[in-house]
Design a protein that fits this description.
- This protein is mainly α.
- The chain has helices spanning 8-17, 22-28, 38-41, 45-53, 59-62, 64-67.
- It has six helices and no strands.
- It comes from Enterobacter hormaechei subsp. hoffmannii.
- InterPro entries: Lambda_DNA-bd_dom_sf (IPR010982), Ner_HTH_dom (IPR038722).
- One of its GO terms (molecular function) is DNA binding.
Length: 78
């Protein structure tokens, strides 16, 4: 069973549905407003966690390709 990462637009939409944005989350975390956008395109566990906390969805659900190998085995231990 192969799972794909969410499309960046879907992540942004999920945040918007919860009344926030990547820029707002970045500023709240004390980062530059564009910093969390990096998590959309490249692995960054801290950024993934900050982004996933707002809609209360585990990061490994949003980015399964970053947390599981092709056989479904977890390769990122939190």
């Amino acid at each position: 069973m192969q799972h794909q990462n969410w499309h960046p637009a879907d992540i942004i939409a999920a945040l918007k549905k919860h009344g926030t944005s990547l820029a707002a989350l970045s500023r709240k975390a004390g980062l530059s407003s564009s910093t969390l956008a990096n998590a959309l395109t490249r692995p960054w566990p801290k950024g993934e966690l900050l982004t996933a906390q707002a809609p209360d969805i585990p990061p490994d659900v949003i980015w399964p390709e970053r947390y599981f190998d092709e056989k479904g085995s977890e390769y990122f231990v939190r």
